[in-house]
Design brief:
This protein is 4% helix and 40% strand. Strand 16 and strand 17 form a beta hairpin. About 4% of the residues have low confidence.
């Protein structure tokens, strides 16, 4: 029988006799269907309370320095014990962060800068500091920060939320680093577009406001320093932590759905008539700090974690995965407090000899294994406040085909269907209903037969979806659909 594929996830659309699907969970897109997604596994000791920001900085030897933030303090992780020690200015605490905000961090050379609106920007020199200090030069308190070229840029200022402020050229922590008119430091008030809600850095910057998006272009030698131009009106960002820079592209969520901006381009919708309507009804809009986006450093995927309307307080409980190369979405059921990315702590470039040897001719281990050590990967603080990697056993995966109907004829199976997957354990079932207005009745699950590869079942209904469930912890790589062994369309009734 022909393959019935698990179609592209488009929950905004009807799946009746469609090439798309509405019900998949805990899988990621592949060119030949779908693959598994791993669970979180912790590496650190507990932070002690809810994580409100995290960041991994890198020394010149490649070693990682991991910072975390709680509502009133900043912390550093020990790379040997994986315990957190407080590195707040003066031992802390700071003025508490607003309920709907997160701390934000950037690295500029050896300096890590942390901001939140109620505190003077904080700085930590990863080569020498024992604690954070106030950033020199009297910079304004700000919610958002990023690096544009060789400037550090602040917006969402406490004193003026419509203003963008940038440091001196390659000068961020000196007595005049933030004095307008010195070494190209300056500021710009944006007269329209609402409050500034974030900035995406890079060689050029992109400023996000409530309903205008602008581009910052550096003008060497020009007294204006930056040319700031509108690239979109009537479109802004919703959920500042959902802003993602992946390579040279930018991804964000607005009240008009998910969008993408490529270099020199304008916002292009990527979720319309696919996931936007479904997502907007599921997102808990009262907790924007838990709506967090991040690019996976080891794949072409963007992950947007969020708290659903039925989620647990102070945690995200769901996520959308978007593969920017395949241009496909999938939903995930993961829980945590804060998404970030980091490399495995405790590994330095000087340790390479110990890891794989110094005689190149004698090395048998692939250098690919070395790259997986020193290249950052997707991480999160779990619900028990621990830094964790997505390295655990695979999550339980469920997938359904589009609803099958046959021009009013009945759908009948006497033997069952064969899941097209390398998963050793798959449970199959088939839903039932007699008309499109009736509620769907779930079918009884049948474990795939180890000899025939068939999930045996009897089906006699007018409309049906074929469903596969792969239990948590199963080792597998792909699934792309089902092959009904004896699907037949019988007479109308």
């Amino acid at each position: 029988m022909p393959l019935i594929p698990f179609g592209e996830y488009k929950p905004d659309l009807s799946d009746y006799e469609a090439q798309t699907g509405r019900n998949v969970l805990n899988v990621v897109p592949r060119g030949d269907g779908y693959g598994p997604y791993p669970s979180l596994t912790s590496i650190s000791q507990a932070l002690g309370e809810q994580c409100r920001g995290a960041f991994a900085a890198y020394k010149t030897d490649g070693s990682v320095v991991v910072f975390a933030a709680t509502a009133g303090d900043l912390w550093r992780m020990d790379n040997t014990t994986y315990a957190f020690s407080k590195v707040s200015l003066g031992g802390g605490p700071y003025a508490a962060i607003a309920a709907n905000d997160n701390w934000q961090f950037v690295q500029f050379n050896n300096l890590v800068i942390a901001v939140q609106a109620n505190v003077t920007p904080q700085v930590f020199d990863i080569s020498s500091s024992a604690a954070f200090a106030n950033l020199a030069g009297n910079p304004p308190q700000a919610r958002y920060i990023d690096v544009v070229g060789r400037f550090v840029v602040l917006n969402g200022l406490l004193s003026n939320p419509n203003r963008v402020k940038w440091s001196g050229l390659n000068d961020v922590n000196g007595p005049n680093s933030w004095t307008a008119g010195i070494n190209s430091s300056d500021e710009q008030d944006l007269a329209d577009g609402g409050f500034c809600r974030g900035i995406a850095g890079g060689e050029t910057g992109v400023i996000f406001q409530d309903n205008i998006i602008r581009r910052m272009i550096y003008l060497p030698g020009d007294p204006r320093v930056f040319q700031i131009q509108k690239i979109s009106e009537g479109l802004g960002i919703y959920g500042p932590s959902s802003l993602v820079r992946s390579g040279s592209s930018i991804f964000f969520y607005s009240l008009k759905g998910f969008h993408r901006i490529d270099p020199g381009g304008v916002p292009v919708p990527i979720g319309r008539e696919r996931v936007d309507r479904t997502f907007s009804t599921d997102l808990d809009a009262t907790n924007p700090q838990l709506f967090q986006g991040l690019s996976d450093p080891r794949s072409s995927r963007i992950i947007w974690a969020y708290k659903s309307v039925n989620g647990v307080v102070n945690q995200f409980d769901k996520a959308l995965c978007y593969d920017q190369v395949l241009d496909k979405f999938t939903p995930l059921r993961i829980s945590g407090e804060y998404l970030f990315k980091m490399a495995q702590p405790g590994i330095t470039l000087e340790a390479v000899d110990t890891l794989i040897g110094s005689n190149l001719d004698a090395i048998t281990q692939s250098f690919d294994s070395l790259s997986t050590v020193i290249v950052p990967e997707l991480a999160a603080f779990s619900t028990d406040h621990k830094a964790s990697f997505f390295r655990g056993p695979n999550l339980e995966a469920t997938l359904e085909t589009a609803e099958q109907g046959t021009d009013g004829r009945r759908v009948k199976l006497k033997i069952g269907f064969r899941p097209v997957s390398d998963a050793p354990a798959v449970y199959g079932s088939a839903s039932r209903r007699e008309n499109l207005q009736s509620a769907v009745q779930a079918g009884v699950e049948r474990l795939v037969n180890a000899v025939t590869g068939i999930c045996n079942m009897l089906v006699d209904t007018r409309y049906s979806r074929f469903r596969c469930r792969i239990p948590a912890g199963t080792v597998w790589t792909f699934i792309n659909g089902v092959e009904p062994v004896d699907l037949a369309a019988k007479g109308k009734r």
